[in-house]
Design brief:
Blueprint lengths: L1 H23 L6 H8 L3 H7 L10 H13 L8 H19 L2 H13 L12 H15 L9 H21 L6 H13 L5
């Protein structure tokens, strides 16, 4: 029970932080505001995070929380490729609605230069576990080609998502990330369909 309470506290801090970052910007958000919005304490905040900068790496947790919610809405009869497209569309819509371009760019650039944990590449994340499950099931049903390994398809899919986010940041968000991805992903991933 204590472990789940800890995850809930950490999750509340992350959600509060990202709401505030989106509303008023990263630079203008204080740790005190995050603590107040999350309904936690200063001790709880510093138990989970060394400071505000440490929250930048938590964006992948926000993504995983979205994936966990989306997993519950997946139609089991949906084609595996359509499941991947649905997950991508909903995640990218969330990014457009809740994550500022500046913060996404900070996350991506921070992952490029960090010597520490590369959160986006952590294969224990919900994101990777869900992708592996969908792709494996899709291969078993004959919806995706079996000549490729599950890991090869997952790697390509994740690479495409990162590339699309990077390009969106580079282009200063001048187009809809979700709409653009819905056009591009089928081209990038089309060879994997059976």
């Amino acid at each position: 029970m204590a472990r789940r309470d800890g995850r809930n506290t950490r999750g509340r801090i992350i959600n509060a932080a990202w709401e505030l970052f989106y509303e008023q910007g990263y630079e203008d958000t204080t740790i005190e505001e995050i603590i107040e919005r999350s309904g936690t304490s200063k001790g709880s905040f510093y138990h989970y995070f060394e400071g505000k900068d440490a929250l930048l790496g938590s964006l992948s947790s926000l993504f995983d929380e979205k994936y966990a919610m989306l997993k519950e809405t997946l139609d089991p009869d949906m084609h595996a490729f359509d499941k991947l497209m649905y997950l991508n569309r909903e995640l990218f819509r969330m990014i457009e609605d809740r994550v500022s371009l500046d913060l996404l760019a900070r996350l991506i650039s921070g992952q490029l230069v960090t010597h520490g944990e590369k959160h986006l590449l952590d294969h224990n994340r919900i994101y990777y576990r869900l992708l592996r499950a969908i792709i494996s099931e899709g291969q078993q049903k004959g919806e995706l080609k079996a000549e490729y390994s599950v890991n090869d398809i997952v790697k390509t899919y994740a690479l495409c998502e990162r590339a699309l986010m990077y390009d969106w940041c580079l282009c200063n968000g001048e187009y809809s990330l979700a709409q653009y991805a819905q056009r591009m992903l089928p081209m990038f991933m089309g060879d994997y369909r059976a």
